[in-house]
Description:
With 93 residues, the chain is mainly beta. It has one domain (9-92). The chain is built from one helix and six strands. It has one helix at residues 81-88; strands at 9-17, 24-33, 36-39, 51-52, 59-67, 70-78. A six-stranded antiparallel beta sheet has the order 4-1-2-3-5-6, with no helix packed on it.
Amino acid sequence: MSGEKGSNTRKIYIPLVNEGTSVLRPTQGITIDKNIFIVQETSDYDPDDETWLFPPGNMVECNEEVIEGERILVARKRGKDQWYHSHHSEKNS
Length: 93
């Protein structure tokens, strides 16, 4: 899939709220697991100008969707913080 910036980041899309229509903002996400990412802010991110459904720093779960003929990863729900703890608690036992 295009949009890879590095081995552990992918281009993901974040829905905007209060726009009056459906708007997706492209940004980078740090890959945590399959379809689980940490949202990164864009260079021009301005929370006073637009409201992201999942602001930078949030863990999100993305769905692969086809928008205007292109397959993209869209953040549709907050990632489960329990994922991190369940995959790292064994090391601390």
